[in-house]
# Entry
Amino acid sequence: MTIDLHTHSTASDGLDAPQELVRRAGTAGLAVVALTDHDTTAGIDAAAAALPRGLVLVPGAEISCYVQVDERRIALHVLAYLFDPAEPTFAAERAEVRRHRVTRARRMVELLHADGHPVRWERVSELAGGTVGRPHVAAAMVEAGLVPSMDAAFSRSWIGPGGPYHVGKQQPDVWRTLELIRAAGGVSVFAHPYASRRGVTVGPEVIERMAAAGLGGLEVDHPDHDDDERRRLRALAADLDLFTTGSSDYHGASKPQGLGAETTSRAAYERLVTTATGATPITG
# Structure
């Protein structure tokens, strides 16, 4: 079985519509694909309706959160799988994060506009085609010729942390996030935990606390992890009895990795499915 447990569609910041994503997954030879858009399950129904025969869809979401370590507030992402999307407390928290994401993006555009940069909210909304987020502001900046790439837009010179046009996130801490996922019958996996190229990461002591708080697994095989990061994470997972996953973190043509670039073992997938109580995989 070829299993990819981390992908994004146009319901958040991916470039493929949910139905196109699952068709691509079928063509790529995947047996199982998880749709894990940021803080939303809005694409799940469309993906399920378009599932190719034999492909299994795992409903999920990638939840934005943070952890406080001494004086630092470190952003984290936790993948939530097979939770009940209608569970009211978790649904309300996801909705609030999405509302703030739009407010945050609009404020970034206002700051850019105030300094004379040709970025307009209407164009950012058009590029998003749905839920607006910081990547859509970055895309509008590239289109306007302000920066040569998305990575440049996310730098400290522009809308990256510490940049003049950056606006902070409003999101739950990781402890509340883990509790919300568990209470909705879901299973949690820490997304790309040691991806140092993305910014500040947490140490093993935080992951130990997360495991004690109900974390189910670690995303080890990820395009942003080097060999040493994978080795250290695999050893830590074994010590903490956490299962390990591998995933492409597919976004479409905006990122180099394709579907199935990194994969999850059948044993880890089966452990995930048997642990969840909120929802079940959907078979085409």
Notes: The longest strand covers residues 56-69. The two ends are 15 Å apart (CA to CA). The mean pLDDT is 95.
